Amino acid sequence: MYLARYIFLSIISVALFLSSAAQSSDNPEVKGHSRGHLQHDHGHDPHNYHIGIGAAATYLTKEGHLAPGFHLHLIRQLGHHRQWGLGLGYEAIADEHFHNGLNLLVNYRPLSFLSLIAGPGLVFGKHDGETEILPAFHTEAVFEFNLRGLHIGPMIGYGLDKEDSHFSLGLHIGIGF
To answer: What is the torsional sign of CA 71, 111, 136, 96?
Structure first.
């Protein structure tokens, strides 16, 4: 059952990325060439890359407690408006088992201040003295406001693996380059 959900969420992430990327390249409004010469603005970001770090209070559902969480991601922004991106993410949850996760990420910016990030990955955790490696899925929503070149704002996240899931609420700081 878990593997089916993991595969389903991974396929949905990739399908949404591919279908929307194809639609945006065919949509004259996005290119600024509609009949009324309207420009559809998604908060154009001139940077090709975005690096973000964050700290969060993370609730582990199975273990039933809060732990400090940390995330880091590097996104290669794509397209003229940088509305889509692909990248890598790392997440650490500092509890007694110290969970680490690595993810392939798809980033979508439907609004200039909102990034939706999701993707499959692997989670590494120590249990009973042994390191376990499990498939995982991570998603987060980041509200980013530009403050003197820094993208800063609240974030909310959810992670899922075979043995546990977690919710995160914290602060995200990013920069484009």
So the answer is: positive
Sequence ranges of the domains in the chain: 2-176
For 11, the token pair is 């396929």
Please write the tens of the pLDDT for every residue from 24-83: 444 444 444 444 444 444 455 678 999 999 999 999 999 899 999 999 999 999 987 889
**Helix or strand run (H / E) with residue 97:** none
Q: Quick: pLDDT tens for 4-30.
A: 455 555 555 554 444 444 444 444 444
The fold of 2-176 is Porin (2.40.160)
The amino acid at residue 123 is: V
Q: Which class for 70: exposed (0-12), middle (13-18), buried (19 or more C-beta within 10 A)?
A: middle
User: What are the structure tokens assigned to 123, written together?
Assistant: 């989670």
